[in-house]
Amino acid sequence: MRSKWSMLPEELRLQVLETLAHSSFEKHGLTNYALVCKSWKSIFEKANFRSLTIDQEDFEHLAKIPKRCWPYVKHVWLRIELEKYYPMLRTGSVPTLSNTVDEKHARKPNPYIGMALANKSLGFDNLAATFLVEASDFFQAYKPEWIWRDLRSLTLTSYLLDPKRKVDEINGMLQAAGVAALAMPMLQTLEIWNGGVGHAAVFAYHAERGEAAISWTSTWDLVFNPYIVDVWRKVGYKNHRCEKLGIEQRLIEDTDAIRRYVDVIELLRTKKHVISRQSLDELRLSIESLMFLDRASMYLLCDNTCLAQAIMAAQSNLRRTAAEDALAEFLEKWTGILGKRLRSTSRTTRTLATLSLALSIILGAEGSRRWWKKRRHENEQGRKLVRTNSWLHNKDGSRTIYVPYKDGTSKVVINTTKPLTFEAHRRLFLNPPRVSGLGDGTVPSAQTKPGLNLAFLHQFLSLMSIMIPRWSSKEAGLLLSHGVFLMLRTYLSLVVARLDGELVRDLVAGQGKAFLWGIVKWCGLGTFASYTNAMIKFLESKVSIAFRTRLTRYIHDIYLNENLNYYKLSNLDGGVGQGADQFITQDLTLFCASAANLYSSLGKPFVDICVFSFQLYRSLGPLAWIGLMSNYFLTASILRKLSPPFGKLKAVEGRKEGDFRSLHARLIANAEEVAFYGGAEMEKTFLNKEYKSLKSWMEGIYMLKIRYNILEDFILKYSWSAYGYLLASLPVFLPAWGGVGGAAEMAEGGEKGGRERNRMKSFITNKRLMLSLADAGGRMMYSIKDLAELAGYTSRVYTLISTLHRVHANAYYLRSGQSELYSLSDVQGTIQKGFDGVRFEQVPVVAPGLWPQGGEELVESLSMIVRRGEHLLISGPNGVGKSAISRILAGLWPVYRGLVSRPKSIGEDGIMFLPQRPYLSPGTLRDQVIYPDGHVDMREKRKSENDLQKILEAARLGYLPDREGGWDTRKEWKDVLSGGEKQRMQFARLLYHEPQYAIIDEGTSAVSSDVEGLLYETCKERGITLITISTRASLKKYHTYNLQLGVGDDADSWEFERIGTEREKMQVEKEVQDLRERLAQVDELKKRREEIEKELNAVWTEKGDLLDAPSYIGIDEAPVSSEESIEA
């Protein structure tokens, strides 16, 4: 052997020795190799001392290790054997570490070992304990006076990190870990991990350089509850002053690769604190190199050829696994069966089968081609419509829009609510039944407070008629599917309870085969139960979104329509104040989420209570059932009586949230004006005051919740648990009253120990049923608070919709004892649409007040008529009602008396209004010109982008497409265009729509006089009759008539006259003569001014002597202009 070894090259010999030294499993045998020669000693001595495993009694032998060998030591594994510990309940002391227990028991997690390690680790710098210690035991042993002052890293394992465990158990353990981490001021890294075949998970906390983060890496998803995030945020802030806490979650998809703990450690990246890089490589290569090592050791007895053959044999054996062999055998078997069947069929059968297969392939390919063609056409159409910000009109009145989704578009069909639906729902929202407490003549009722009463029931059912319009709707199908899964979960709970009892019975009886079969059934049941729970949460989210979609579209249809409800809701009615956006967005979302959750939090527990109560009645007898029912009614009455009015509190909180948001919205809308005035401090005062009010209210709610939660937790958790144990003991202590369990207790005979096993099974089953029953009852009791909050959200949403119905139907009626003049209940005028012109007959111009207040009369009675081609200028000082005329004509303000006539349509061949503040919509540059039309409407009018370019040139904006990048450019146009460009854009819209009549309210105040004249002349050339509201006298030359408001001593009269008459000329000449007379008095006024100044500058003594003027008073005065003399 020695001759053959020396014949090998030196490099190969070193490689064989290194492989043998670093890959051997029997480390204690390396010492014999080191004694062969010095060259072998240098290699095997390093491997021998690289990892040391010592017991407690071997500490004194460490000093015998040669000094030259200490640099080779990389890891020292200390084996501590613990004796069995039997705790004394009287002392309550923490167990200590000792050295007299068997190793196989020490490898199992023991709660006392975890408690002892937690106590002894207070002085450690780093700690990594895997599988010997359970993490939950370690953290539960924590006491408030403990402090790990130097602990920087902590790595533990926990059997709770398993996909089969409950989420609440995992969250509870992680929360306990955070509480203990608050006592670790130097902690930088904490890892809790676990793994098995097909699953792995690790929770990690890292903090360094002012940053802290928690992460969850596993083969399944876990949702952290808010308490976990809060406690770990406190850990980061207390220990490292980290203001923010990062949260990261990573899902491991390749679960098939997890077969050994090596794979778990590698996937979870816990190598740094669990095992070294070198040791990890050893574990990973342990199985793969086993056969190779056997051949390598045999090389000492064979030649090179035998070694090569051994390596090739090992590689060939590792080429295919047993699973691959089984798969190959399965394929070969069924391939042979199919081939045999085909060979036994006739030629006609095979021909027909071939033709059928070919035909199905052809038809499938053609169907796929048509589907793909249709899909591609929809995608192209969708991208085009998204680019042009347009939509499609359908024959049934609905609209099809495309919204961006991932890399393409998604098609959405919006069906409008029919007017008959609004008529049918008006009775529910405007005329509620008197028994509901909402019929006092106000909508919403001022006498009804949000809460669990008949008013809430009527409000909720009224909203449900919108959310579920018919039983064949999508929402009804989702609720039915949700209900099926909820019932299925109830059934699974019964099966789990029964299976749990059988497992414990078989375990106690020592029936291994039955116990293993029960474990298999448990795993299969767990898979199905996990799918059921996931579907319940998914369907609940779908129901919430479906409810919100129904309500949002319903509100949009009644909010945005030709009746201008979106304007009247805030400016005339005032039922929801200025916070309509708060109602439509936040309140509606909270209501839909709460309503969807109500189905599972109230209906499911009720069914569970009925089913579990019946099962317990059979198992425990009538006495237990009576006790359960009495406990429920007693608990419900106590909680109902002591429960705060959460509905009212939530409603008020929502209103205060809306007020706070409206203040911010007002600041954003008027930011420029506030900045010019320098009013930041004043606005901050308003915001802080409103926020303080909101904060105080929310703190009050939280204080009430604390008291209520203390009572609720004590009753629902601890008192119910104690009561459940009492009921579970009935079959044992009172078998005559114990139902089926009591009958089994009283039965005689049976095998030895059978009664104890059946008693254990019954107790475990009944305990599981009572836990599920307690959970259902707890959710029923918790739902009282949820119902109260839902009542608050329901009141808010019902208030919004009822107010919208009141505005839509103009349902304002006189209340008893009220007779406000010019209130919304005092509207007696008429609007006539379809008149070829604009006419006012005995119409008072009134600025309306918010309902039920009356309005302010600006003009007593206005009568005029403007026909086609007769342009009208409405002039007068500010505040006399010029813009009010346009609002009455547009239908924004009511016609309290008289008759108003106007064209029927708005836009083409009708009437169009240009408001005082130009409005630029979101969208493309094209949308700004054609607003309120869309791209499809523009095509229907047979207008192209060339026509739009000509319109912009006529409005002196022809440079915009080139400057802004084309017609499809999207920008925030209100910030891009200047004031003059905004007003000219309004004229571009006017030229695009070409109405017969146009009302222009201060439409050229930011435009130069020459461009102003060109715009007016262009409109007149296109046949547009202009009605202009302005204070500019220069605009008279473009108009035929002048309506002057604010005439008379009280500024409450008006004059309507033709421009250019003899009377007007005489008035102009009179004004010129008056100016000449005032200019002629300039010299006299200057002389009088000098006399007054001399008298003011003179100084007298007490004796009446006149003193000279002081030297600093100039004698020569600056010349006074004629304008200044006129003002004097």
UniProtKB/TrEMBL annotation:
SMART domains: AAA. CDD domains: ABCD_peroxisomal_ALDP. Residues 1058-1102 form a coiled coil. GO terms for biological process: fatty acid beta-oxidation; long-chain fatty acid import into peroxisome; peroxisome organization; very long-chain fatty acid catabolic process. Keywords: ATP-binding, Coiled coil, Membrane, Nucleotide-binding, Transmembrane, Transmembrane helix, Transport. One of its GO terms (molecular function) is ATP binding. One of its GO terms (cellular component) is peroxisomal membrane. It holds the Pfam family F-box. Residues 484-715 form the ABC transmembrane type-1 domain. Residues 838-1084 form the ABC transporter domain. Belongs to the ABC transporter superfamily. ABCD family. Peroxisomal fatty acyl CoA transporter (TC 3.A.1.203) subfamily. This is Peroxisomal long-chain fatty acid import protein 2. The lineage of its organism: Eukaryota, Fungi, Dikarya, Ascomycota, Pezizomycotina.
